[in-house]
Amino acid sequence: MERTLGERNLLQRYKAAQFIEEMTKPKPLTEVDVDLFFALVEKITVYDEGRLIVSLLDGTRLNVTLNREEDLIRLGWFESP
């Protein structure tokens, strides 16, 4: 029994380390998973000056401020001069 608990704990630590590594090295999105988006996002509220509030279905609210020109260029919606 002890060995099984220890092995499970080791697996949990390994998986946690993998998760942390993935989260600290984000990769840019090249496409949107629409099903995932609607499974997570309740609504996006847009304000002046490039401010957004993204409300997730679990109640989390994310405040986002866009630097308009830089962000639009990065998203490919605007070409740099």
Structure characterization notes:
By secondary structure, the chain is an alpha+beta fold. The chain has three helices and three strands. A hairpin with a 4-residue loop joins strand 2 and strand 3. The radius of gyration is 19 Å and the shape is extended.
Beta-strand level of the residues, as a percent range? 15-25%
Topology order in helix (H) and strand (E) letters: HHEEEH
User: What structural category arises from helix and sheet content?
Assistant: alpha+beta
Distance between the termini: 66 Å
Shape: extended
Widest sheet, order of strands: 1-2-3
- Which value, in Å, is the CA radius of gyration? 19 Å
What is the count of distinct domains? 1
- Low-pLDDT segments: none
| Count of beta strands | 3
Number of helices: 3
Biggest beta-sheet profile: 3 strands, antiparallel
Mean pLDDT: 80
Helix share of residues?
Answer: 40-55%
Topology (SSEs and partners):
Blueprint: H1 2-24, H2 34-40, E1 41-47, E2 51-56, E3 61-65, H3 68-74
Antiparallel strand pairs: 1-2, 2-3
Q: Which key features would you list for this structure?
A:
46% helix, extended, single chain, 3 strands
Structure, briefly:
The chain has three helices and three strands. It is an alpha+beta fold. It has one domain.
